[in-house]
Amino acid sequence: MSKLKVISEKSLTNNSRVVGLLAQLEKINTESTESDTTRYVTSKILHLAQSQEKTRREMTAKGSTGMEVLLSTLENTKDLQTILNILSILVELVSGGGGRRASFLVSKGGSQILLQLLVNASKESPPHEELMVQIHSILAKIGPKDKKFGVKARINGTLNLTLNLVKQNLQNQRLVLPCLQLLRVYSANSVNSVSLGKNGVVELMFKIIGPFSKKNSSLIKVALDTLAALLKSKTNARRAVDRGYVQVLLTIYVDWHRHDNRHRNMLIRKGILQSLKSVTNIKLGRKAFTDANGMKILYNTSQECLAVRTLDPLVNTSSLIMRKCFPKNRLPLPTIKSSFHFQLPVIPVTGPVAQLYSLPAEVDDVVDESDDNDDIDLEAENETENEDDLDQNFKNDDIETDINKLKPQQEPGRTIEELKMYEHLFPELIDDFQDYDLISKEPKPFVFEGKVHGPIIVPTAGEEASGNSGNLRKGLAVKENGSPKGDKKATLVDPAKEDIKDNDRTLQQQLGDQNRTTSSVHGLNNDIVKALDRITLQNIPSQTTPGFSTGMKKDHGLPLTVLTCTKACPHLATCGNVLFEGRTVQLGKLCCTGVETEDDEDSESNSSVEQASVEVPDGPTLHDPDLYIEVVKNTKSVPEYSEVAYPDYFGHIPPPFKEPILERPYGVQRTKIAQDIERLIHQSDIIDRVVYDLDNPNYVIPEEGDILKFNSKFESGNLRKVIQIRKNEYDLILNSDINSNHYHQWFYFEVSGMRPGVAYRFNIINCEKSNSQFNYGMQPLMYSVQEALNARPWWIRMGTDICYYKNHFSRSSAAAGGQKGKSYYTITFTVNFPHKDDVCYFAYHYPYTYSTLQMHLQKLESAHNPQQIYFRKDVLCETLSGNSCPLVTITAMPESNYYEHICQFRNRPYVFLSARVHPGETNASWVMKGTLEYLMSNSPTAQSLRESYIFKIVPMLNPDGVINGNHRCSLSGEDLNRQWQSPNPDLHPTIYHAKGLLQYLAAVKRLPLVYCDYHGHSRKKNVFMYGCSIKETVWHTNDNATSCDVVEDTGYRTLPKILSHIAPAFCMSSCSFVVEKSKESTARVVVWREIGVQRSYTMESTLCGCDQGKYKGLQIGTRELEEMGAKFCVGLLRLKRLTSPLEYNMPSSLLDFENDLIESSCKVTSPTTYVLDEDEPRFLEEVDYSAESNDELDIELVENAGDYEPSAQEEVLSDSELSRTYLP
Questions:
Q1: Which of 372, 661, 885, 1039 has CA 20 to 30 A from 943's CA?
Q2: Of residues 406, 409, 401, 408, the one with CA closest to residue 1030
Q3: To the nearest 5 percent, what fractions of the chain are helix, strand and coil?
Q4: Calculated CA dihedral for residues 429, 433, 438, 441, nearest 10 degrees
Q5: What sign has the CA pseudo-torsion 808, 809, 811, 812?
Q6: In the 8-state DSSP scheme, what is residue 580?
């Protein structure tokens, strides 16, 4: 004993008695000393553990061996009291510490030792009760922390030991309670759950739970939790259904609901609902639930709970169960394929379009629930033992891990001879500017000779520049009517006549006319749109010739006249005198009856439409209603639209007020869901009347005054069918993308016949995304014609009680192309219209049509200074339906035709921009509009930018999709941004030729410095970029060794970092530079990997708003989007200064001044906190139906999240903050 005393005294010098006691215990173990000493030491340690938190901390501290000593003793001792002492110590240790101490015990092998102890203790007959209570209590606490616990328990054979213990001791609550807690842990493993179910555990649970009782409430609560876990197994759920337990659960629930007046047993009531939720995961369970009148029972009980806020968990869980059990219906459509059909020139052999064409006609009628039709349970066979590892692998599965695939490898793809077809689209590389009226003349003209002294002239593909320049194109703007085959027809325009055409007014003159007419619109009568008749635009002077689609001339001097309707002529003919391709151009519903104009001596015209021209206070506008009508004539749509939507005709200016992100009212989603459930419970209250239908050409618009009228038959419109549900509630169904049977999200439609002061509810019932910013403050957009006529022509955010949730409509997995998500989602919003009998338009986001783009390009072309700006508008190719895809070239004209100036002109680096590959992402076009306007402006920095770069811009990569109201696809039914690897010239002409332009530049050694594709993002806030980096991609795979071996220029980060400083809406922390396998065929990755452009980006703009910076808390508008486009240009100029400091000496003060001109100075710093790939919670079922769980973030944190730290040499900017990188 002297040795023990010495050790004890040494320990005391460390001010820790427990360390000494543990050392004694360890010594005892090695010497196999008598059990009395072991009992004494363990009792002393127990006393310290019970009385001192310090002791508990020391024993579970990192590096402590105390836990090993205790477990070793527990494993080796046979003394019952010692075992009980150690178990009591372990109970004390794991009872606190927030789960960390339980994990610590697991890490030391505690699970296996305790399970073996349980097996050994069960061999005694009868088992020692206190020992069993302690073992089960500890195992119930540490089991959830052990990933392999279910497997260990099964291997050790403890499942039935615990189960039999419960069966034999049902009246012994003290023993049964920890046993039930451990059964609940066992049941988390599906194999164990099935095994226990076969041994009667489900029936056993129903012996414990029962009607309302004030006794044994804690036991009933644990039994219900265990039952809910067990019923997640389909085998156990089927067993419960077969024995009629669904009816029993409902009866018990009603009994507890009625008697628990003080709501003290809410957890028991919730436990019953959780069991119902589990059993209704299978079809048999749902059927049993509905047969037992479960829908009505839960609906009534949940409505009674609404008054008590603390009962919200019951309401939310009831709502979830009812939504799940709501009978699945197919959409009320003849087919989920698009209403419009376009015959493709070539049918793909594989892919979604090929699958669509091969589908049997009846496939749309199948509601597929095969996931729970199986008669056998496969969980035991398919059990994955390490589910956490599986989840981790799944998280990283999309990241490209093959270094060879990650390394950019320039692939020519096409031969030099093939690429020569693009030579005519790069005249800036060969033009000598001899015949241009340039700003200054040098004494020595530029002459091509065999050898050029001075700057290197980069030759065009396949041939050197030579003295033979006879085929050089002359004229400032060469219009090309190109085709995919490369046929060219050039229309040469005299530069002298280009700036001011015959009968063409300048922007200033037009603005003056608008000023004179604006004041006449203020006295408009509120009954302006009462008659709802069509107005046909007639007497429109047209100087276009058949087939002349570009370079359109128009007489602005002749006013646009409108055929005015009167009350005496309520039915106006819908065909005008002017036909173009067999169609008329009409505006939507509007009656001019009752328009009273104020006397204005300056007003030159009484034309109603001219009165509708509204002054834009910010200066000259690119919008011209007359020109828009002319452009529309050449726009080819599949449905052959003849109407023009008023917002596109009037134009849009940003409203002069801020629009904050909408705060979501408490309980709004469950209220909406309850109203949906009422449809099933009270079916007699539902009108169910079709009031709009694209699929029925003989459909007659109802004439009743209290029914809203709908329309979507105009460019970019999308609304397929409308069903009146209740007096002021309508279900709306969107049209699929053409040659597709899904991609429903974009909407744009007209509503008329409304009454003010009435709350109209609109439900768009066939959305497909699993979540939306509509759940986080985004509102739809509304445009009021009456407001526009009152000098307020703007789209505004509108709607209340907005939410987005899964509904009871579904499609078969075959019709969904094998996708997992077979259910549709509802966007619901409520609107109070401000005016009686107005005509209003609703849209997913600010519309920007193809015709609007063509109008803007023509206005930019006609207004620019040809001596200063080199501007060309070519046709890249024709789309599938015959629309031209514009290609814009912008740079500065050379200072003179002196050879040094020509050399400088030709050697400017290229910047290649594109946008709107996805039609529903209209915000991309507004950003592009900001870029184009800035590039064409007269500011000093814009001129410096033009002198620094040559811009090649494809502002709309998917004209057909935009025109026909698609959300994501072109007429080929495919996502064009997944076709860049191998575009088909017949099916994807715009991608094929856009890639061809880039391949041509690569072939002539003129790789763009920057490529950027503008997009919109529906589930994230702010504006951000996706780029490409080998190192960051490898780093995200957690292969740190490989990451360290990769050497990479981090210049790809420069532009995003610049933008994070100068653009208020831009957020660096949302940027990502990871290359994913699923994005390998996108423009960003292909241009980086195949073309070799290091700075290849996708710039994503939010559809909702910002949660950081100057615009925090505000929804984004066109002003902010256009500003982003302009800031992008300023960023390019700063990039030039950073990358070429010697040749670029523009003072930084000028850049700062320009930044202030775009928007007042705003210091934006990138947040340095780690942000997940989604800035909102994933919309899982629990969130989906509960409505209030936005706070309950259920997000999988990325393992090993940390900063990617470039080396000091890699850091380009001198910012203090370094952005994080994330999976997009």
A1: 885
A2: 406
A3: 40, 10, 45
A4: 110
A5: positive
A6: B
Which residue has tokens 């039914």? 973
- Contact in structure between 90 and 137 (CB atoms under 8 Å): no
The C-alpha atoms of residue 767 and residue 821 are separated, in whole angstroms, by 11
Band the pLDDT of 753: cuts 50, 70, 90. very high
Q: Where are the alpha helices (DSSP H) in 842-887?
A: 850-863
Residue 165 CA: distances (Å) to CA of 112, 114, 327 = 20, 17, 42
At 307 the three-state DSSP class reads coil
Contact 845, 795 (CB under 8 A): no
Say how far apart CA 1004 and CA 999 lie, in whole Å: 9
Burial 19-40 (b: 16+ CB within 10 A, else e): bbbbbbbbbbbeeebeeebbbe
Integer Cα distance of 414 and 421 in angstroms: 11
Binned at pLDDT 50, 70 and 90, residue 401 comes out as low
**Coil, strand, or helix at residue 871?**
strand
Cα 6 to its chain centre, rounded Å, is 68
* DSSP state letters, 1092-1151: --SEEEEEEEESSBBSSGGGBTBB--HHHHHHHHHHHHHHHHHHHHHH-TTT----HHHH
Residue type, 305: C
Residue 1089 DSSP label: I
Q: Is residue 760 within a helix (H) or strand (E), and if so which, with residue range?
A: strand 759-767
Supply angle C-alpha 1056, 1173, 1211, rounded to 5.
Answer: 30
**b (16+ CB within 10 A) / e for 384-399:** eeeeeeeeeeebeeeb
Q: How many residues does the chain have?
A: 1224
Q: Whole-angstrom Cα distance, residue 738 to residue 962?
A: 11
> Above 60 in pLDDT, residue 370?
no
* Cβ-Cβ contacts under 8 Å for 791 (sequence gap 6 or more): 518, 521, 522, 614, 615
Number of helices and strands (H, E) in the chain? 45, 24
Report yes or no: 855 and 626 within 8 Å, Cβ to Cβ.
no
Structure tokens at 1181: 């079922």
pTM of the model: 0.76
Give the max Cα distance, the chain: 120
Q: How far apart are CA 1075 and CA 319, in angstroms?
A: 40
Contacts of 1039 (CB under 8 A, 6+ apart): 401
| Alpha carbons 111 and 131: distance in angstroms, whole number | 16
The helix (run of H) or strand (run of E) holding residue 589 is strand 586-589
Instruction: Tell me the Ramachandran region of residue 610: left when phi exceeds 0, alpha when psi lies from -120 to 50, beta otherwise.
Output: alpha
Rounded Cα gap, residues 1056 and 1060, in angstroms = 6
> Which runs of consecutive H residues, i.e. helices, occur in 312-410?
312-325, 352-358, 387-396, 403-406
Catalytic residues: 1100
Nearest Cα residue to 777 out of 448, 1014, 1115:
1115
pLDDT digits over 445-495, tens only?
444 333 333 333 333 333 333 333 333 333 333 333 333 333 433 333 333
H or E segment and range at residue 17: helix 17-31
| Separation of alpha carbons 634 and 651, rounded Å | 19
Question: Cα 1137 from chain centroid?
Answer: 34
Strand order in 689-693's β-sheet? 689-693, 721-726, 729-733, 759-767, 823-832, 800-810
Q: Give the containing element (helix H, strand E) for 563.
A: none
Is the separation of the CB atoms in 670 and 316 below 8 Å? yes
Average confidence (pLDDT) over 1065-1088: 94
- Tell which phi-psi region holds residue 8, choosing left (phi > 0), alpha (psi between -120 and 50) or beta: alpha
Print the SS3 string covering 1193-1222.
CCCCCCCCCCCCCCCCCCCCCCCCCCCCCC
Q: Sheet of 869-878: strands edge to edge?
A: 869-878, 884-892, 950-954, 910-915, 1010-1017, 1095-1102, 1023-1026
